[in-house]
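User: tokens in, sequence out, please.
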């Protein structure tokens, strides 16, 4: 018989950080694409103003999140692994449509599957830092130097803008995929409920269920 228990898988801070980050990134995408010229809603000036405020809030949130990851040791959950990665991919491409069992089990100490580890690792180590850095370069392309105003050249600024926009598209692609994948837990709403309440029904260890 399976030993299923409702366990706390996401702490209060983790849930706050997750939803605050999601909200800020959505808001930054919304204001950012207005700055980009995709549509007009707030007006260019306000879009820039709110985009800058949200950017500062995101930086503060990320600083707290880094502290939390380091002090709780939760950063270890995100170390990428190749173990079971093919089985996980096969599950998303074929298994899920045939009602196959999940190839890996979720536990408190191992709550991410190999593809999630790889995706979230890339997000934290490459995509978010690239978005932040290009955003800050965009913000401070003029800076005081010896009583005058120095600036990056217009060419550098164009490259910065292109990199920042590319990061924004990559984040939008991540969000869309993420929204689909959260529906692929034990039930359609199990993952969403876990990130809202912190609790999820879990069993067993980190070992693969199907032995793949
Ligand atoms: C800390 C993070 C961020 C900082 C510091 C930042 C900063 C900036 C700045 C200064 C601009 C130019 C505003 C102007 O024209 O005066 C900008 C534009 C933009 N941002 Fe951000 N941003 C950040 C995060 C994001 C995120 C998370 C997204 C989307 C998911 C995003 C999407 C955009 C887009 C699409 C543009 C327009 C780019 C263009 O067409 O040139 N930004 N950002």
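Assistant: Sequence out:
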């Amino acid at each position: 018989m399976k030993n299923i228990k409702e366990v706390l898988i996401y702490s209060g801070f983790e849930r706050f950080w997750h939803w605050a980050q999601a909200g800020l990134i959505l808001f930054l995408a919304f204001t950012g694409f207005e700055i980009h010229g995709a549509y007009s809603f707030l007006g260019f000036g306000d879009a820039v103003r709110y985009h800058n405020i949200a950017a500062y809030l995101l930086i503060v949130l990320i600083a707290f999140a880094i502290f939390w990851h380091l002090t709780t040791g939760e950063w270890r959950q995100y170390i990428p692994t190749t173990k079971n990665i093919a089985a996980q991919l096969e599950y998303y491409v074929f298994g899920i449509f045939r009602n196959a069992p999940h190839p890996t089990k979720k536990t408190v100490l191992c709550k991410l599957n190999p593809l999630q580890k790889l995706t979230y690792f890339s997000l934290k180590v490459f995509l978010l830092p690239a978005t932040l850095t290009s955003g800050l370069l965009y913000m401070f392309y003029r800076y005081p130097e010896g009583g005058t105003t120095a600036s990056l050249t217009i060419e550098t600024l164009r490259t910065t803008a292109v990199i920042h926009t590319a990061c924004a598209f990559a984040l939008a692609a991540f969000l869309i995929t993420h929204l689909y994948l959260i529906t692929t837990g034990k039930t359609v709403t199990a993952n969403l409920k876990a990130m809202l309440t912190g609790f999820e029904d879990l069993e067993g260890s980190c070992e693969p269920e199907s032995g793949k």
